[in-house]
Amino acid sequence: MPIQTFNPPVKPSAGLRSKPEIKIAKASFGDGYTQSSPDGINYVRQVVELTWDVLTASQASSITTFFSSQGGYLSFLYQIPGDSMQIKYTCDDWSDTHLSNGLHKITATFRQSFNL
Fold first, then answer.
1. Radius of gyration of the chain (CA)
2. How confident is the model over 73-102, as pLDDT tens digits?
3. Distances (CA, A) of 97 to 41, 56, 102
4. Which of 11, 20, 32, 86 could form a disulfide with 77 if both were Cys (CB 3.0 to 4.6 A apart)?
5. What is the pLDDT of residues 94-109, one digit of tens each?
6. pLDDT given for residue 106 in this prediction
């Protein structure tokens, strides 16, 4: 199955939060000595929190339907606004908040995917 590209109907709101997720293997020895090393070749993963503040019901549905179709485990391509290239992500954490006047706010967490 070909990899999908996430093209939301509007760009996320300002205030994008990016935080690396780092996997380190650690061994503890006596007297407080520890030894650390990277856990795998892709031990630094980009984690991005995106927010869409004001969406119509149709726009919100478009975004949440895409996330649901990926099932939280299928990778998709997305280019973060301001980045120079698309990166492969998964999204297994999102929320849709119903605001007044029929508007919606969506937050989602994207984790960089190294799957083939």
1. 18
2. 999 999 998 889 999 999 999 999 999 899
3. 37, 12, 10
4. 86
5. 999 999 899 999 999 9
6. 96
**For the chain, how many structural domains are there in total?**
1
Q: C-alpha angle 111/79/70, rounded to 5°?
A: 50
Report the alpha-carbon distance of residue 15 to residue 94 in Å, rounded.
Answer: 17
Query: At residue 108, what is the residue type?
Result: A
Structure-token pair, residue 70: 């990926």
Cβ contacts of 11 within 8 Å, gap of 6 or more: 81
Residue 83 is part of which domain span? 4-112
Pseudo-torsion of CA 94, 113, 5, 72, nearest 10°?
Answer: -40
| Residue 105's CATH number | 3.30.200
Task: Report d(CA 48, CA 21) in Å as an integer.
Answer: 10
Nearest-angstrom CA–CA distance, 27 and 19: 25
For residues 53, 56, 58, 60, the Cα torsion angle rounded to the nearest 10 degrees is 20
pLDDT band, very low/low/confident/very high, at 31 (cuts 50, 70, 90): confident
